[in-house]
Structure prediction request, 266 residues.
Amino acid sequence: MAVDKLVDSTQLDADLASIANAIRTKGGTSAQLAFPAGFVSAVEAIETGGGGATLKQELLGYTPQGDVTYIPDANIPQYGICGKRGMTSLTLDFSDGHNFASSSSNGYNIYRCYIPKITIIGHGTVTLYAYGVTDCPSAFILVCRGDIKKYSANVFRGNSGLTTLDYTYTSGNGIGSNDFYADSSFGTLIIRSSTIMPLANVNAFSNATKFRSGGAGGTLYVPQSLVEGYKAATNWSTILGYSTNSILPIEGSIYETQYADGTPIA
Prediction:
């Protein structure tokens, strides 16, 4: 025989409020949740693998697992995203005007991360400042696509694990001094643009980079129509003149239909 149990309504209300707060924190929302339908729909809206976290959660130490997409609600500040061993991929999907914050010579934005794939997508204009992605030791692929501009130098410096950069260049300063300094595994650069991306100085590839003079050799992929132009362009002619380096057209390569991280090109 079933026995009715007394319910402490005050305690129940407190417990439900605690659960609702946890759901709101996980889902990055401040909306009121009606029980039970509101609780169910809010939980279902949280992406599997921890996706959909806000930048604020990330900076507070939220550590999701798996493939994660962030839509930053502000600029990525200095030391914004550090460590992070749990993610298999990180996509930063910027809206117009949100950038990697301008940093001092000791500032970092994505710093010493252990993420195999990093993608930066721009809607409108997004700017990468100095030390935007740096000191990442594990092997990873970086894809910058959308309306991405680069400001200053040293943007991708010190990433010993960076193997490939797939860059949808639009405008701006191009590749600056020491951009790939000490990127010891970096050997594949893909530039998707109808114009030649400026190279400020050959020291962009200095120290351990495969593209450097005496290095193991790197491959530059550009549109077929620009291959000869790159061979003659300022500073590119020097880099491509090193006997170990080569330049190939994107057309006919695996990068014609997909980005370097395997994402199909729409």
Q: What stands out?
A: The chain has two domains: 1-46, 47-256. Residues 164 and 188 are 5 Å apart (CA to CA). The chain has five helices and eleven strands.
